Amino acid sequence: MPLRIKQDQARFRDIVRGRIKANLRQYLTRDELIGQQGKELVSIPVPGIELPHFRLEDRAQGGVGQGEGEPGDALAPGDGEGSGAGSAEGRHLLEVGVSIDELADLLGEGLALPRIRPRGADRLVAERTRYTAIAAAGPESLRHVRRTYKQALRRQLASGTWDPRNPVLYPVREDFRYRSGKAVPRPESNAVILYLMDVSGSMGDEQKAVVRIESFWIDAWLRRHYPGLRARYLVHDVAAHEVERDAFFRTRESGGTRISSAYRLALELVRADHPPDGWNVYVFHFSDGDNEGAEDTRRCVELLRDGLLPLVNLFGYGQVASPGATGGFLGDLRAALGDREELVLSEIAGRDGVHDSIRAFLGKGR
């Protein structure tokens, strides 16, 4: 590809990145953007950017090559005025494919998020093939041309068939050389996210949509730092249980809320499957703040203080605004554990609050 085209492409990508970053708050709340995720790419409509293109003149106005004419007539556009529906210029929307990793980088730049500082041992071991040797056999796609012709030159010199006046090399099968690789282990930091959500009767569809949007961006940012990130999903009303991702956002329950059931289950999973000496553990809990009573809130504080907080990199509690919910749980946590470094509390006032909530959760770089 010519250098000029590459430069134009890079300039266009910079323009797109700048436009997305300038409208980041708008994109953070686009539920349809999250819904179309697939194959690591999403399609984003970016307003105000128009690719260069040819535009044909309206044939109704006359012009070159139209209508009757005589030799010597001046070539000029007609003076007719166009009319009819659709004559006004429309708003330009360009659909741009953006990778999830690139979106995560834009999120980090737009919110000024610090890089994550992993902790714990490197437990995940990925293998990467490195081609550092040469072999006499291998697939044609890995044939090493320079080594092949060098071997052919050696053979012809040794056999006396090399003619410097006619320096032509004829490689034969024995001359072929191929790149040879071996798997090299590459340790990666192990990480897991536990998403907890209140699915009691007071958490409606809009509250769950807010949770879905926020968890998407949290997931994207953390995966940028932990390629092998694992996610687990817990829902609770008066009891808690683990579900698949799709069920996490679609589960509809009714009845009361006992938050301690979710914290107890999360603690059991972390201790059994994700001990902190080998895992970077992140827990995010979303609720409307209504709990069963003061006694259960006391149990929640104990489970956090003595159990979960010492084991995690970060515990984020997001309280989603909900009509009819009193929302006292956030204040109780702030009063009891507000000084803990591992705990981040966020009040999410609907979709417009997602932007500030993500910054609060991820702004510590833990």
Keywords:
366 residues, alpha/beta, Rossmann fold, 3 domains, two-stranded antiparallel sheet, 10 strands
Describe this structure in words.
- With 366 residues, this protein is of the alpha/beta class.
- The chain has three domains: 1-51 and 91-110, no CATH class; 124-185, no CATH class; 189-362, von Willebrand factor, type A domain (Rossmann fold, 3-Layer(aba) Sandwich), CATH 3.40.50.
- It contains eleven helices and ten strands.
- It has helices at 3-22, 24-28, 31-35, 100-110, 145-159, 205-225, 245-250, 259-273, 294-308, 329-337, 354-362, and strands spanning 41-47, 93-99, 124-135, 178-188, 191-198, 230-236, 240-243, 280-287, 314-320, 343-348.
- The strands form three sheets. The protein has a six-stranded mixed beta sheet, sandwiched between helices. A two-stranded antiparallel ribbon has the order 1-2.
- α6 links the parallel β5 and β6 (230-236).
- The chain is flat.
State the CATH topology of the largest domain.
Rossmann fold
Q: How many separate helices?
A: 11
β-sheet strand percentage: 15-25%
Largest pleated sheet: 6 strands, mixed
Radius of gyration: 31 Å
H-E order? HHHEEHEHEEHEEHHEHEHEH
Structural class: alpha/beta
The count of β-strands is: 10
Q: In CATH, what is the homologous superfamily of the largest domain?
A: von Willebrand factor, type A domain
Main CATH class of the largest domain: Alpha Beta
Query: What is the domain tally?
Result: 3
Helix content: 25-40%
Q: Catalogue the unreliable spans.
A: none
Please give the CATH architecture of the largest domain: 3-Layer(aba) Sandwich
Strand order of the largest sheet: 7-6-5-8-9-10
